[in-house]
Amino acid sequence: MSKEIWVFAEQRDGVLAGVVKELLSKGRELSEKSGFELCAVVLSEDGGVFCDELYKFGAKKVYTLDNAKFSYYQNDYYSRSIADLIKKYVPEIVLYGATSIGRSLAPTIAAMLHVGLTADCTQLDFDVENGNLLQTRPAFGGNIMATIVSPNHRPQMATVRSNVFKKEPVDNPSGERIVCETNLDGIPERMRRVEVIKESDANTIDLNAAQYIVSGGRGLGAPENFKLVYDLAAELGAAVGASRATVDAGWISHHHQVGQTGKTVCPVVYIACGISGAIQHLAGMQSSDVIVAINKDPSAPIFDVADIGLIGDLHEVVPELIRQLAAAKG
Amino acid sequence: MKIAVCIKQVPDSDKVTIDRETNRLNRTGVPSIINPFDENALEMALQLRDLYGGTVTVISMGPPQAEEALRTALAHGADEAVLLSDRKFGGADTWATSYTISLAIRKLGDFDAVFFGKQAIDGDTAQVGPGVANFLDMPVVTYAKSVVVEGDHFKVEKVTEDGFEIWEVAKPAAFTVVKEANELRMQSLRRKMAAKKAVITVWGFDDLGADVGLVGLSGSPTKVSKVFAPPVKTNKATITGTPAEMASELIKKLKERNVL
Questions:
Q1: Is there a single domain that holds both residue A11 and residue A160?
Q2: Among A231, A228, A242, A222, which Cα is nearest to A203's?
């Protein structure tokens, strides 16, 4: 039996998480280097519906665990079932999205199996010399990168942030579905979800999923000046972020907070308006593709991480930016 | 209710600066604090105790100076504190840490609930809560915003990417707590005085009856293979000029990078 790389194919309400496609795309690269076969594992009521999409991103095998109890993520059922499957097939590598589900499920499984788990990886590579998965993650606010290995334990497990790897479909998808037996009779029902409440705040675009984010900091000067941030965000179709200082001052709700004690984001473009760039903030946005900083103070630490730095008064630059973007649209 | 809260002492990240020469963190003189998310876990435990009676035990694993974080927790209202400290625990990753903490909780007796912050701000792994829950054979609800007792179970509000979920969880259970849950109460003068004199139980390797192969560095499946400064950004641009010039230059540069 060939060795395998598994991707946990997280689904919610029948929709695969975007990060699953990113993990499969990266997994193909690891598969080519290692010679391990790329596989996906999906827990749901009927895994058949996910297979084609998983083949499309490179899975050569899809293990489906089908059970009515898998309709939503329940940590006991999911962790025990996946741990049993891992014991049976002993994959070399198991990857999970660093979502709220992945970040709960993966550590439970790691504890059960006594295997290593690296959280929130932003780079993955394979060392052909020794078979180690090289798992790189930002440490302490992204100011240091650390590469972690689990040399003596299998599988090697990692959670990976969303929007870090590209989604690349394959040209000629093909794969095989392996229907796995599930037996949940021995697992007592200790927890159940009784209600789901979606937040339907029409004014806020989800920071985690946003392609563009415009964030405001203390440099706005006053709470009402968040209007500038909102207006620019509207022009770009962006989500609105905020520094901890503005949240603590009560200028904006904590839902918007980006940083270590807020949300970790990685949009295509992150525009920081009047944010000085404390480590606690940088930790939450440093892996954005393009960072734009607008600040009066040329020595502000935000400029160290910025790809494009505008040294100027945001109260003048942002309105001008809004005007020009609007004009360009006609 | 018998409640445990696991806390970690971390450097205050707001006060950490970077040595631009070496790209390393300057930790000298940086104050240590209770991990901010653990404050929310502590407050949630204290509120449950205030409502239903019982005790709150705070537990921390770390070097001897982590005792300071435990005293702070006592000053905020916790009833007793246990420090797990031993050279043999050093170098533990999240697996070995979870295992060690779970042994201490078992030794302390049967708890109705065990609380954790959603993650620690120095490691950001969010792994120890679910890990300990597994070793204690307790169900775990992560990202809890509120926890109330309803008969023989807990009713929990859990934060997700796109809203909330309500869960029912059998007792005993473990929870990791988000920041928006609450704000830690002030220290009272009386508690503060008492915390200074309080006896903090310190347990080491021998007290826990741990397996030497499962604690500290030797019990840790993960190893740090390399630490390096993040790659220096190439293609950095600085824009100055009038607001109109800066705005148009920014739009041009974003278009050049194919992101607009």
A1: yes
A2: A231
Same-domain status, A133 and A215: no
Within-domain flag for B226:
no
Per the structure, how many domains does chain B have? 1
Contacting residues of B for A106, CB less than 8 Å apart? 127
Which domain does B112 fall in, by range? 2-219
Residue A189 in any domain: the answer is: no
Mean pLDDT of B40-52: 98
Question: Tokens representing A9?
Answer: 């194919």
Is residue A140 situated within a structural domain? yes
Give the contacts of A76 (CB within 8 A, at least 6 positions apart). A187, A188, A189, A190, A191, B139
Q: What is the mean pLDDT of residues A313-325?
A: 97
Q: Which single residue is written with the structure tokens 């915003």?
A: B145
Contact B134 A79 (CB under 8 A): yes
CB pairs under 8 A between A and B: 245
Does B240 contact A114 at a Cβ distance shorter than 8 Å? no
> Do the chains contact at A307 and B235, CB–CB below 8 Å?
yes
Is the Cβ pair A279, B14 closer than 8 Å? yes
Question: Closest partner residue to B233 among A107, A196, A307, by Cβ?
Answer: A307
Give percent of chain B with pLDDT exceeding 90. 83
The beta-carbon neighbor of A290 closest among B25, B139, B257 is B257
B24–A144: do the CB atoms touch at under 8 Å?
yes
Q: How many domains does chain A have?
A: 2
Contacts of A111 in chain B (CB under 8 A): 95, 98-99, 130-131, 134-135
Identify the domain containing residue A141 by its residue range.
4-180
Instruction: Tell me which of A37-51, A108-122, A184-198, B225-239 is least confident.
Output: B225-239
B143: left (phi over 0), alpha (psi -120 to 50) or beta: left
**Cβ A113 vs Cβ A87: under 8 Å:** yes
DSSP state of A181: P
C-beta separation of B40 from A167 below 8 A:
no
Q: What is the CATH number of the domain that holds A114?
A: 3.40.50.620
Q: Answer positive or negative: Cα dihedral of A318, A322, A324, A325.
A: positive
**B169: CATH:** 3.40.50.620
Whether A68 and A153 share a structural domain? yes
Give the β-pairing of A269-273 and A212-216.
Answer: parallel
Which among A180, A214, A236 is the end of a domain? Answer: A180
Whole-prediction pTM: 0.89
| Cβ proximity of A279 and A253 under 8 Å | no
Residues in chain A: 330
Q: 3-class SS at A136?
A: strand
Q: Does A103 touch chain B (CB under 8 A)?
A: yes
**Residue A261 near chain B (CB below 8 Å):** yes
Residues A132 and A268 in one domain: no
pLDDT tens-place string over residues A88-145: 999 999 999 999 999 999 999 999 999 999 999 989 999 999 999 999 998 776 667 8
